[in-house]
Amino acid sequence: MTTRLGTVPELDVPWDQLSDAVEEMSRRAASAGSYLVDAGAAWSGLKDAYRQPDTELEVHAALTELDGPMQEWTAALAAARDALAAFVSAGRPLQAEAEELAAARPALAAHLATALDGDGAQGDNQAERALRRAEAFNGRIAALRADWQALSSETSAALKGISGGTLDSLPATPLLAASASLPAAPPWASFTSGLNERFGPLTPESYLASLTGLTDQELRDWAAANPEGAALLAANTLPALRLPGSAEAVMAQAMANDAALTEAGISAIRDAWKGLAPDDQERLLLLYPAVFGALNGVPFANRIRANTLTAAGYRETVATQQERLGAKPDLNDYLADARNTHGHPRAVYQQAYNRYTADLEDWQAEHNRLATLRSGLDFAVENRLQVVMLGLEGDGRIVTMDGALGPGTRTIATLVPGTGADLGQLEAYTHRLDAVNGEPSADTVSFYWQGTDLPDEISDNITASFNEDGGPLLAAFDHALDLEARSDARTTYIGYSAGGSLLGTGEREGLDSTNIVYVAPAGTGHNVGSPADTANPDANRYWLQTRDDPISAAQLLGGGYHGSSFWRGGSPTAMDPVRLETGFLAPEDSGSLMGGHTDYFRRDSTSATNIQGIIEGTEVSPYVEDQIHQTYSAYGPLIVSPLEQNPEDYAYGNLETVTVESLEK
Amino acid sequence: MVLVDVAADGQSLDKAAGDAAAAGEQAASLFGSAVDVADAFAGFWSPRRDVGQRIAGLVYGKSRVVAETAELFVDADGQMSAAAADFAESLNAGDAPVLAARGFGPVPQP
Q: Chain B neighbours among A 16-35 (CB < 8 Å)?
């Protein structure tokens, strides 16, 4: 007698993904249904607004005819979800059984073959046992096939049995069917722009009823559908005349005299805010989003909600300015004007040309500025960044938050960017921060702080004004953060390039933090020559800089503006930091030594890994010190870097690491 | 403003319907070796895939018609006025096609 092992059926369904997709399908369809209900409720307002005897009945009833088809559709998708949930639930163990059988089959087949080849009585016994096992195995396969077939049939039948909710359920001749064909994606934003033109502009207050009570996501959708409305709200400021005792009056009083820039003032703003009724808080956030979205002392979660409107509104404002700027000046237009002007021809043409070049320069500067603002705002809106401050002054200012700040937040990192940072650089800096801050969560939060003007070019930075303007703003942000973060949270400020001296100036103005990380800083801060010059003398300080970073010139020469004095310069060594290794762009490639000024935040580089190590308090690689060889030549001692000389000794994970704890004070 | 509110809900409706359609499309590709079930789901899904977005499109189309038509009748503050209603009466007499072209049914003649 011979028995052959059956073939195990191949069951290969990505159950988790299928389950998630089906659940999402049904859940979002249900959301669509509830939005149609909301739209219907809003539409019922037409009963008062739209009065015209011949058409009003049709208008008033126009959305109602969609309710039935929508309910059928969501019910059908929910039924499919239920059928497939049962399929997933029963199919998963069958697939596990198939995998178990497939894994056991080769050994069993070998055992069977050996046993059937054996001789004698002992061989017969072994063969009999092997045959029994093979039959049992085949029995399991048969049961599996039957179960799988039954499950597939049952599920297919359930899906085929679902009725309704198809395209056929939609009205064949809908009420108010537009004569033109409908676009694939309803352009609600341009539709609402048209409303303004048709029916006159709306006031901020007129939008309030529409906005109150919306979820954050709905608010975002509202702003996408009503960009002009969002722009109007973003431009709204507190009224000059305020009812005594109103929420506006309470907050205006708390904000007076630049209170948002001082520790005491920020606490007072927070107290005033918390004293408002929740309805008033919501009203102020929606009605004056740019004002309260940027106000230190207002909780970050509230600011983020308000700035959903601010970001969308400012984007619309900038888009309008871009349209108004019009085309580049054309020399021919100026020359044509000159032809019609009396006077000496040569002088007239020269004047026309001078006007043209001046206008062209202005146009180009404004064009570039608007493009910079627009690219940052597009990035912020499209990527749903959490914005805690936004301004359009100069090249634009922005502070963003990643993660969910709360009582459970134990690690907070803030990146202060450097030369050239403006709204247009938001995407690049967001990626830099992503490379060092790990996964954002309720436990780990990071901020990108570009809340002031930073120099456009390194050569623009030969002045203390960027530091003196920005330092107090950065310190004020830190005070606001202190009010929300738990007192034992591990905080790290990273100052990059010009942001390094800005950070130092902020420390002088009251910023405090567990760790300060200088990344190729322009200096240590205006009038900051030692930790004692700051409000943060106990901070752990770290410094990263490549061996050939040109910023070293600024550290030597820019001292008067970025450090303690012209004579001492702005070298970070004055702050007694632990220098960390910048190492390799890719630690598995000994030929990828990091150099220059721009790659410190490259993901997985030695430098980025070290910054992340400080943020999280794990491990870092200390700087590989230069070696000094005494020579008897006229050039003095020879200084060499072992890392540069023998990089292969340090790549591949061979850099020495120490715990961050061992470096802390 | 009624239509502003409808626009916000319409935008959310379109997005949710689009998400549902995308998730359904994804589900259709995730049946692996369950070929029979995949076929059954494809049969279920095909006539339903576009329903949500079609409804969202109809909400938009109806809003557009109302806005265009109301423009004929309303004054600047969005309320139908007596004067606008009078205008409508005269409009009906000779310009029924104007309304019919905007999707209204036959307009009774005065």
A: 17-18, 21-22, 24-29, 31-32, 35
Residues A430, A555 within the same domain: yes
Q: At which of A339, A354, A381 does a domain end?
A: A339
A179 in contact with B at a CB cutoff of 8 Å?
Answer: yes
CB atoms near residue A142 (< 10 Å) = 11
Beta bridge partners of A494: A415, A517
Averaged pLDDT, A491-509: 92
Whether residue A462 is found in the same domain as residue A611: yes
| Residues A550 and A621 grouped into a single domain | yes
The interface predicted TM-score (ipTM) is 0.78
Residue with the two structure tokens 């606001």: A480
Q: How far is Cα A336 from Cα A328, in angstroms, rounded to an integer? A: 16
Q: Are residues A659 and A517 in the same domain?
A: yes
Both A90 and A200 in a single domain?
no
Give A62's contacts in chain B (Cβ within 8 Å). Answer: 62, 66
Q: Do residues A110 and A1 touch, judged by C-beta distance below 8 A?
A: no
What's the pLDDT tens digit per position in A548-596?
Answer: 887 776 665 554 444 554 434 457 888 899 999 999 999 999 999 999 8
CB contact under 8 A, A58 and B108: no
Provide the 3-class DSSP secondary structure of residue B108.
coil
Task: Supply the range of the domain harboring residue A142.
Answer: 15-167
3-state secondary structure A85-128: HHHHHHHHHHHHHHHHHHHHHHHHHHHHHHHHHCCHHHHHHHHH
A76 Cα to chain B: minimum distance (Å): 9
pLDDT digits (tens, 9 = 90+) for A398-430: 999 999 999 999 999 999 998 768 888 899 889
In this structure, are A448 and A551 located in the same domain?
yes
Taking an 8 Å cut-off on Cβ atoms, the answer to whether B66 and A46 are in contact is: yes
| Bridge partner residues of B62 (DSSP) | none
Check residue A467 and give its pLDDT: 72
Domains in chain A, number = 3
**What is the C-alpha to C-alpha distance for residues A496 and B1, in angstroms, rounded to an integer?**
48
Q: Is A587 on the interface with B (CB under 8 A)?
A: no
